[in-house]
């Protein structure tokens, strides 16, 4: 979904900018890789008619409405790729699988109230705890991390545990881009999704094989980005054996009369019972959506539907997770110091709204690195509930397409296992909605 661009942002002159290399010179590229540790960025030639290809694959949101349709403005970056070594992938996957377990523990601390106010209804936390105690199956999540290829060490920036997007780019588009290129894919996210939906189906009574997949309405998602992600998920579920039905959020109906009489209360607009549902709609919005009445309905009868992602993801889906992790695993090498208020030890800090997404509301104050950025919006301002995290200087890469490219790695998890990698890069300090998606490959 489109977000509001930041007010100001300037890139630090301090980070070393690593030069990219051209893909035709394979031998030279290998030598350059050794010189610049492991992960590296290369320039590539775009495919003929590439914009038509990605549009046919489903990226109908490559340019913002009214924006000039040029390569410079393209969300999908056809002119570069990030190449990772086997050692990079091994380090990233091991560290993120460990992080997943840590997030489960930190999420329990949040759900129990040990981290203070969650800014969510108490009934919602009751629902989350019940879901966790039942062992409700989760499907997927994505860690957004900074990566130091010299030390082979990640730093967690945030965790998208509930509604991560960019599935289409990370599966279909990245895979077809790779055809006839001298590299390998990183994991197999599509196959891992099918396996996970197969597992979820095995936990389901044979009489309940219908999975509703819910995305927000067109007026909220005019670009079609959320729909594209839901289509990928529906395809994987169908291959796993589910019957699938894709609907808009406004077609989800709670029938209070049926609920009061002991009947199943959740239905779609065609009168079909919703018993299992994948929703690309954040839990924190669902349990506070008083306009539709979903807040009261979900909190009181949410357990009558098997939700994907499950309600226990409320324990890890907000930025409250960051100080919870630091509180429980202080000084862990994959974590950055994070606090519920501006801690005296933080000279270089990033302020993040609890419920912010895609860089909304983020403020960076890092005087030691010359980095200052303000992405406050009308919705997320200085009064919004926030956490403070230590600033992590990010490595910048030079390319023919742009002078400065700052990558953030999206590490895909299916259940508790590493499943794939995607890379988004920006030319400014905050990775927001306009960050470019760049193919990621393995040597």
From TrEMBL:
InterPro entries: GSPS_pre-ATP-grasp-like_dom, PreATP-grasp_dom_sf. Residues 50-440 form the Glutathionylspermidine synthase pre-ATP-grasp-like domain. Keywords: ATP-binding, Ligase, Magnesium, Metal-binding, Nucleotide-binding. GO terms for molecular function: ATP binding; ligase activity; metal ion binding. Coiled coil: none annotated. Transmembrane segments: none annotated. This is Glutathionylspermidine synthase family protein. It comes from Corynebacterium heidelbergense. The lineage of its organism: Bacteria, Bacillati, Actinomycetota, Actinomycetes, Mycobacteriales.
């Amino acid at each position: 979904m489109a977000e509001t661009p930041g007010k100001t942002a300037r890139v630090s002159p301090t980070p070393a900018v690593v030069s990219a290399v051209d893909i035709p010179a394979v031998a030279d590229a290998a030598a350059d890789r050794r010189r610049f540790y492991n992960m590296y960025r290369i320039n590539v030639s775009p495919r003929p008619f590439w914009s038509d290809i990605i549009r046919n694959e489903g990226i109908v949101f490559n340019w913002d409405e009214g924006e000039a349709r040029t390569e410079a403005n393209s969300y999908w970056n056809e002119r570069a790729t990030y190449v990772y070594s086997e050692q990079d992938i091994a380090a990233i996957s091991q560290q993120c699988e460990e992080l997943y377990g840590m997030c489960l523990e930190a999420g329990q601390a949040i759900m129990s109230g040990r981290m203070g106010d969650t800014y969510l209804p108490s009934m919602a936390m009751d629902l989350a705890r019940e879901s966790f105690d039942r062992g409700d199956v989760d499907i997927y999540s994505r860690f957004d991390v900074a990566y130091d290829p010299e030390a082979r060490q990640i730093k967690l920036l945030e965790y998208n545990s509930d509604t991560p997007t960019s599935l289409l780019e990370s599966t279909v588009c990245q895979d077809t881009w790779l055809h006839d290129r001298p590299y390998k894919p990183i994991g197999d996210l599509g196959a891992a999704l099918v396996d996970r939906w197969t597992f979820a189906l095995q936990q389901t009574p044979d009489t309940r094989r219908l999975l509703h997949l819910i995305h927000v309405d067109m007026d909220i998602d005019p670009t079609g980005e959320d729909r594209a992600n839901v289509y990928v998920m529906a395809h994987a579920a169908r291959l796993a054996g589910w019957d699938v039905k894709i609907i808009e959020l406004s077609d989800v109906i709670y029938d209070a009369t049926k609920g009061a009489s002991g009947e199943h209360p959740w239905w779609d607009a065609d009168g079909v019972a919703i018993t299992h549902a994948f929703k690309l709609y954040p839990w924190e919005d669902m349990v506070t959506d008083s306009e539709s009445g979903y807040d009261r309905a979900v909190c009181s009868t949410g357990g009558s539907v098997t939700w994907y992602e499950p309600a226990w993801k409320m324990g890890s889906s907000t930025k409250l997770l960051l100080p919870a992790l630091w509180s429980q695993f202080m000084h862990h090498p994959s974590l950055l110091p994070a606090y519920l208020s501006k801690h005296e030890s933080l000279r270089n800090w990033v302020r993040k709204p609890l419920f912010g997404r895609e860089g909304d509301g983020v403020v960076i104050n890092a005087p030691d690195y010359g980095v200052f950025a303000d992405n406050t919006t009308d919705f997320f301002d200085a009064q919004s509930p926030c956490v403070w995290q230590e600033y992590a200087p990010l490595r910048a890469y030079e390319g023919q397409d742009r002078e400065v490219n700052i990558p953030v790695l999206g590490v895909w998890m299916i259940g508790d296992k590493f499943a794939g990698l995607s890379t988004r890069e920006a030319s400014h300090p905050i990775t927001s909605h306009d960050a470019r998606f760049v193919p990621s490959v393995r040597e």
